[in-house]
Specification:
Length: 510
């Protein structure tokens, strides 16, 4: 570790980031409370399979976040190239290794210690800071978790924390070394930026019919893009409203139950909701088909759609032809009963209906492909240039310009111009020599390359700053020890990764 520390600041920050990642892997591991729904597994640990259901849950969430961040650049090919499936699998394998080692070492706390930890959890305390069992039971009920299962999960997390604490070791970093590394961390650099934007390229010509139809099939069949071309599920609903003055007095509950039975019996005998309601003095209303947000195909609200907080949720939980029970309207003494008359499942929009959207999206993706090819070629030529004069010649040939970033630190997020700079680009900038060109980095729908132009050492830091910095170095060393221990556990528990399963998630949608 100390050899690495003395190797330079870049190595320190790589270890810090690695340490943070390892802790994230440990603390946010696989939950034990989901229901198994598939026999396949992503890996075998200690002779037992890790089920696919937990992997799929985390993988889908991570993929959705990536699509939101990348926007139109989130092509199936790009998503497949990121290796997200293996990253998620590694997180879950590491969590399982720590779970097993904690049990093997007998580091699980007893019942009394677990109970105290739950009582001390502020999530289960009242306003006076006292443990409230009703709050605990309500939280667990809402999340569908049994108390015994939750207690076991708390026990396991406490055991993992104890194991990590046992692996912690003090860092041997003296004041002189800390001062040098502190100055290196606070170094400032200025770079010349080249930002390549799709707006600089002409929009490709509109695709022909054959190309557009093939593109349509790709979009509606790929999970990453299908949602934008689907008609949502819509339901035709009928309902009756039971006013608050219909059932009063001591026998109100019995009368309400008898009324509900008559209504349900009539429907079961073949009557429509309107026919069943009429003899009981009620009028059924039928709503125009709508989606789960309450919108019709035209985007408006159906006439007579009631403003009852749980109405739509109740209606969309029914099967076709099914009726709800008599449901109390929140904040009132009135009730309603709703029936799902017809359900039109989610389905792709007709090709002609989405033709303009398809054509625009195809053109945007084609232009993005052209931009990526141009940016890669430019970055290659810039990296091959031997000095600043040669670099400027490359820019002139491509009719591009350098823009100064202004002073940047290792924690900078944007240039003086306001251009956002990805963290990976900032890290690359601080690993390059003077006049060295970075790799190519995406920023939204743009690409950025930087060339280092100046370096200025940071301050040596005062006593308080150095104390905090040494604590950060100590934490980095602890995480490195933990990382080494995880590699030992891979061998101890004979981890086998089922790469064929992961490859199925990494393959681009065809």
């Amino acid at each position: 570790m100390l050899t690495t520390l003395r190797g330079g600041a870049a190595g320190i920050f790589a270890h810090i980031m690695l340490g943070l990642l390892v802790i994230a892997f440990v603390m946010w591991g696989v939950g034990d409370m989901l229901r198994v729904r598939a026999a396949q597994s992503i890996a075998t640990v200690g002779g037992q399979d890790l089920p696919l259901y937990a992997f799929e849950h985390e993988y889908r969430g991570a993929m959705d976040r990536l699509r939101e961040q990348l926007g139109p650049r989130a092509t199936p090919e790009l998503l497949a190239s990121l290796g997200l499936a293996r990253q998620v699998a590694d997180r879950q394998i590491r969590a399982e290794l720590l779970r097993r080692e904690t049990q093997a070492l007998g580091m699980l706390p007893d019942d009394a210690t677990v109970a105290k930890a739950i009582r001390d959890d502020k999530n289960f305390q009242d306003k006076q800071g006292h443990f409230d069992r009703q709050i605990l039971e309500e939280v667990l009920r809402r999340n569908g978790i049994r108390e015994a299962v939750y207690a076991d999960d708390v026990r396991m997390n406490m055991g993992k924390a104890l194991l990590q604490q046992g692996l912690s070791t003090p860092a041997l970093v003296d004041d002189v070394m800390a001062s040098v590394l502190y100055a290196a961390e606070h170094e400032l650099r200025t770079v010349d930026l080249v930002v390549l934007s799709p707006a600089a390229l002409p929009l490709p010509a509109a695709p022909d019919q054959t190309t557009l139809e093939a593109f349509y099939k790709e979009q509606v069949s790929a999970p990453a893009t299908a949602a934008g071309f689907m008609e949502p599920e819509r339901r035709t609903l009928s309902y009756v409203y039971i006013p608050p003055d219909m059932f009063k007095g001591e026998d109100a509950d019995k009368a309400l139950a008898a009324f509900s039975a008559k209504l349900q019996d009539a429907i079961a005998a073949g009557s429509t909701l309107a026919e069943a309601a009429k003899p009981l003095g009620l009028t059924a209303k039928t709503l125009e088909p709508m989606d789960s947000a309450g919108h019709t195909a035209g985007g408006g609200w159906p006439k007579d759609l009631p403003d009852w907080g749980n109405f739509i949720q109740t209606a969309f939980a029914l099967e076709e032809g099914g009726q709800s029970k008599l449901t109390k309207i929140p904040g009132k003494d009135a009730y309603y009963l709703v029936q799902a008359d017809k359900i039109e499942p989610e389905h792709p929009r007709a090709f002609e209906k989405v033709r303009p959207q398809l054509a625009a999206q195809w053109q945007a993706q084609e232009r993005q492909k052209q931009l990526h090819a141009k940016a890669e070629a430019f970055a290659h030529d810039l990296a091959a240039a031997k000095d600043e004069a040669a670099q400027r010649a490359v820019l002139a040939e491509q009719k591009l310009e350098f823009v100064s970033s202004g002073p940047l630190s290792r924690t900078s997020e944007k240039a003086e111009s306001g251009q956002a700079l990805p963290p990976t680009l900032i890290k690359d900038i601080f690993s390059r020599p003077m006049h060295g060109a970075t790799g190519l980095y995406p920023a939204g729908d743009k690409y950025i390359v930087a060339v280092v132009r100046s370096r200025a050492p940071g301050p040596s830091g005062g006593a308080a700053e150095l104390k905090t910095f040494k604590e950060k170095l100590a934490d980095s060393e602890r995480q490195e020890v933990l990382g080494d221990y995880l590699y030992y556990l891979y061998d101890k528990y004979a981890v086998t990764v089922h790469q064929q399963v992961l490859d199925a998630y990494s393959a681009p949608a065809s």
